[in-house]
Amino acid sequence: MIDTLPLIIAVIAAWLAIGALGLARPRNLTYVGRVLFSAGAVAGLLLAGLALQAMSQAPQALTLPLGLPDLPFHLRLDALSAFFLFLLGVTAAAISVFSAGYFRASEGAAPGLLCLQYHTFLAAMAFVLIADDAFVFMIAWETMALASFFLVTTDHRIPEIRRAGFLYLLIAHLGALSILLCFGVLQGGSGDYTFASMRSMGLQGAWPSIAFLLALAGFGAKAGLLPLHVWLPEAHPAAPSPVSALMSGVMLKTAIYGLLRVTFDLLTGQLWWWGVIALVLGLATALFGVLFATVQTDMKRLLAYSSIDNIGIIVAGIGLAILFKTYDKTLLCAIALTAALYHCLNHAFFKSLLFLATGSVLHATKERSLGKLGGLIHRMPWVAWLALVGTLSIAGLPPLNGFVSEWLLLQAFLFTPSLPQSFINMLVPLAAAALVLAAALAAYAMVKFYGVVFLGRPREPSLAYAHDAGRFERVALVWLAAGCIVLGLFPVQVISRLDAVNAMLVGATVYHGGSSWWLLSPIDAKRASYSPLIVLGVTVVVLLLTIQVVHRFYHGRLRKGPAWDCGFPTQTPRMQDTAEGFGQPIRQIFEQFFRIERQLPTPFDVAPRYFVRAEDPFWHWLYLPLARAVDWAARQVGLIQQGRISIYLMYSFLTLLALLYFVR
Amino acid sequence: MTVSGFLSQLLQLAIALLLAPLLLGWVNQCRAWLQNKSAPSLLLPYRTIRKLFHKDAVVAENASAMFRITPYVVFAAMALAAAIVPSLATNLPFARAADAIALVGLFALARVFIALAAMDLGTAFGSMGARREMFVGFLAEPALLMVLFTASLISGSTLLPTIVETFTQRDLAIYPSLAFAGVAFTMVSLAENARIPVDNPATHLELTMIHEAMILEYSARHLALMEWAAALKLFNYSCIGLALFVPFGIAQGNADASAILGATPVLIAKLAGGGLGLALIETLSAKMRIFRTPEFLGTAFLLAVLGMLVNLLLGS
Description:
The structure holds 2 protein chains of 2 kinds. In chain A, a hairpin with an 8-residue loop joins strand 1 (60-64) and strand 2. Chain A is mainly alpha-helical.
């Protein structure tokens, strides 16, 4: 057995070196794209391989003589870190390959500079995952936030993008402050900020709860939990697509990692109401995210809201795991945790896939608005068919990967044995209902996304010139789509790996020796089982058999003609459902949840114009009042500034007097 | 997976495939009688399917492969569902591969494919139908899952055969939670199978169509498969309802071919009753406006959740 931690550090160093090399010839696209990004992809694969190996190994620790004197970097690699490192490596590899063919010389910052920011971002995320003291963690966390801020504002000449970047930076820092305070609570007055010391601290009274709430707020800000989600739908559309993919697919998961690390590892005794808070907050986030996803008209905003939805589901799974842990139902806790981790992995694959696909669409059409796309399955078959895999996965359909985690989570909900509190017993079925509703709405949103972008007829004449993705982009998309399929078809193998994390955090494993390799039955074969291989196998066999039988016993004759559409003579592409039209039923039912701005034409309008926009109510409930309050407070403070030197001298004098009084 | 289990599995699938159009014919016949019309032949659905298979398929010029593959995908998904639902026997090897949650997933898969195929041509009616179908589905699917969850909580299993076995072995008693679930299930089945009051299978008015609007562009063998799949869907829903609420007469344990064939008349009798009930509901109610649908389905969803809560509170 070899020590994997030094090798992983070497990979991180390689990423940093690749980034720095980008500055050597920043404007040379072939050098930066083909050589450096490809090298970064290879490093990502290496990282994934090493992390996979490390998951089954004992925890390894290392102290690097970096940083301030007497404060060396403590690093540690255990199963939890290894799992998230694997996720990072395997997704980053695909995104790097995509980037190799994606960035253009004319867009935003110089490619070499982007390369530096991109690889710093990757390295910082990896460092977050192996940090073993609060200092390293915060340094890596902030580096990650800054690197991603610069990546988001690649096209910094556009004012909206600058604004989105600012919002992101602001919320990232609010979160970072909260995390910093959380670590402050966790060290418990010992002044020792290593995680090892925090583990043995054994906080008493209200302190563990305060630490948990601070962690939930801090990591929630990064992950996009309500009400700190507002940066996601702004920053994701602003960033270049590979960056959106990286942020949504991987960076949000570092927040989940942090939450798990604090809740299950650094804090020893969990309380039941933490679980309830996480569960309720997670489900509220999921429902909110998916409702807003259904009414979006910008494809990247739609995906950003869908990310909020998925993070909500993951946090709900974590909440359930906490709940079970406090009542010592370790097996159920392990199942809920597995569902959350599995969903992290799934989301990394399908969301990256879809964000990259939108990148290809954006390059081919220069269009992000759903209202101006359509029919791209004919012009971009590679992207369209691969995106279909992602769409079906994210909609939670068997036999793809999104269904597996949903299934596991529902099993955890369903086999809640009677917990001691009747209040929680009531909550669990309601939560299951909310989860199922969110899943069904996700299918709605994704049908809208896929149908409007890739199917139908092109809504603009310029779409006829759209070209399919290039070679590098295709490789990346195929890699991610294959990941969705493999994760969907081989849940048993995946879960047997994930059990290392379960064993570490909850002390129970979902899988035991006697289970068969093709049938997923986490509790007991009599209670529940699912085998995606058989579902796929039978479906494919029936499908092929039907085709054979129909063509053999009847015929395969086929004629082409114009679409019938009930015989209506003129049909234009503008008669299809637009993105607004497709979301209209949801907008109408859930009207009170949206802030709708609507402009309807009257019958007498010469140039009738229909306009509707569903806004995020949190701006008006929370953020704008907050901003106004800050403004008002600033103005009040401004009153004491009169601009006359005598008055300022008087202030100094009064301050001095006050100080003398107190210090006396 | 034993050989006999595999055989009983195939036998049940074959019987389901054959019986499904008959159920559709029966419902249509009952409805015609109840509405004082002269009834079409019981075998009309078979004839329609046969006729459609003989015709030349016409496909729109701008159709993608999605449009052409969808009838096969939908048919395969419904056939697999028919293999999973314990309509005749509980000794179903495939049922272990997909429990109740996966079954709902299969229905969702079929729904998503139909909706995508309807959007593929970019016709006004197609995309309208797709939107409405997804709109009905987003409330019906959770409600169906909640109904199945109630049954799963009672029997301690999400596997449909196990649910049926526990239900038949218990004493005959009325479970309040199942009563809620039963009402919810009926409402969901009406919506999911494009029946009155949510949709009208016999409509010829384009603006009120949901399911029909989506398959408007299909012809010949594609349409035949779509119709057959729709018949199978109705059959599957009926059999789920029968398995949950009237689980008697289903061959249990290691049933062989003769036991399955023996269970077939019982199933036909139960389906005949269910079909008559469906025709009665369709005759007695009027189709509602599309924006009343969420109220209808929301009620179903809430009833199903109530059922689950009642189960947890009363422990039954």
